[in-house]
Design a protein that fits this description.
Its EC number is 1.3.8.3. By secondary structure, this protein is of the alpha+beta class. It is built from eleven helices and twelve strands. The strands form three sheets. Strands 3, 4, 5, 6, 7, 8, 9 and 10 form an eight-stranded mixed beta sheet that branches. Strands 1-2 form a two-stranded antiparallel ribbon. Strands 11-12 form a two-stranded antiparallel ribbon.
């Protein structure tokens, strides 16, 4: 049986992170450097410095690379507290896509690759992006990949287009998921390649205007035109890309849930406060069943989400793969968080659709959460396949 009681150290860390976010991070939510394409790097660096001063920087990064080296269960507590503000994960350097890319590099990269990219990356000196999704190609189904690479001697020449690439603008390097064309005795197949973003052959074609704006650098379309990548920049092995995608995505789906659960708690608290103090038809609106039931449903969704996250985190800490569990949890929590945010908008009425509170912002972010790292419908399809296969 899994014990969901927090240790004294976890409780202390949870309180430290929550207080840090409330005191130091929330005041930046109206900062002009928070743009329609996310926080600028100047704002990110300033928030990173505050987290360093508080001893809360990079909780997920192994201690050998300067992080706190926390396990998944403790990360669930910390990321939840960080997510109390959409800027909290930015401050702690544990936001997407960087958090997942750091995990991937730590688990798959060579020592030389770690020294070149992971070391400054973990320190917050540079940012990254992950190029997998394509317009009309790879996305929820990565087997539809259109970006190709062919051999030129021992080098790889990459051509294709990726889009909805989070953090592309201003990032220092990219991890490219592409289909390498076999050549004689040289292997082919789905492969991950690393490249610095300043290389000839990489162009940010356009910045995308999207519903969300909590990720540094926003989202962009990236074009590769005869990009040359040397063999030492292969991440892992040629042809093993699908395996590494799961190394990255299984824990990343879970950490998304952790962060956005914290945001759900925040907007629920705002809605509760509003329901206590706003009067209509002779009493606080929270005492009307229409509002009171929405608050109750929020509480149910939040508590169920927390239990699912902790259960999946515990499975990962026990060494279980967690791919199926993270898919179930990502689907359930993303839908629950959106329901919470949607109800909070409704409870606040006109105020809920303004930027007077963070509710409108979290609502937009939660809507996008139901799509990225696999839309809910694709996860349900995969879950159903597993159910039928296993009887």
């Amino acid at each position: 049986m899994i014990n969901f009681d927090l240790t004294e150290d976890q409780i202390e860390l949870q309180l430290r992170v929550k207080q840090f976010v409330v005191d130091k991070v929330i005041p930046f939510e109206k900062d002009p450097r928070l743009t329609s394409h996310g926080p600028t790097d100047e704002l990110r660096v300033e928030l990173n410095d505050l987290a360093r001063e508080a001893g809360l920087f990079a909780p997920h990064v192994p201690t050998e690379w300067g992080g706190m080296g926390l396990d998944h269960t403790t990360l669930a507590v910390v990321f939840d507290a960080a997510g109390y503000s959409p800027l909290g994960p930015i401050a702690l350097h544990c936001a997407a896509p960087d958090e997942a890319n750091m995990n991937l590099l730590h688990r798959v990269a060579t020592q030389a690759q770690k020294e070149r990219w992971l070391k400054p990356f973990a320190a917050g000196e540079i940012r990254s992006n992950f190029c997998m999704t394509e317009p009309g190609g790879a996305g929820a189904d990565p087997s539809g990949m259109l970006t190709k690479a062919h051999y030129d001697g021992d080098d790889f020449i990459v051509s294709g287009v990726k889009w909805l690439i989070t953090g592309a603008k201003g990032s220092s390097f990219t991890i490219i998921f592409c289909d390498v064309q076999a050549d004689g005795d040289k292997p082919g197949g789905p492969t991950m390649l690393i490249s610095d973003m300043d290389q000839p052959g990489i162009k940010i074609s356009r910045e995308l205007d999207t519903i969300d704006n909590s990720f540094t650098g926003g989202h962009a379309e990236v074009t590769f035109e005869n990009l040359r990548i040397p063999p030492e920049n292969v991440l892992g092995e040629v042809g093993e890309g699908f395996r590494y995608v799961q190394v990255r995505l299984a824990p990343a789906r879970l950490t998304h849930c952790m962060r956005w659960l914290g945001a759900a708690r925040r907007v629920h608290e705002i809605a509760c406060d509003y329901a206590r103090n706003r009067h209509a038809f002779g009493k606080p609106i929270g005492e009307h069943e229409g509002i009171g039931f929405m608050l109750a449903d929020n509480e149910i969704d939040i508590q169920q989400s927390q239990l699912m996250i902790w259960w999946t985190a515990a499975a990962l800490d026990k060494g279980e793969k967690g791919r199926h569990e993270s898919s179930v949890t990502k689907t359930a929590v993303s839908e629950a968080v959106f329901r919470v945010a949607d109800r909070c908008v409704q409870i606040l009425g006109g105020s809920g659709i303004t930027q007077d509170t963070v509710v409108e912002w979290v609502f937009r972010e939660a809507r996008a959460f139901r799509i990225y790292d696999g839309p809910s419908e694709v996860h349900r399809w995969a879950i159903a396949k597993r159910i039928l296969r296993n009887g």
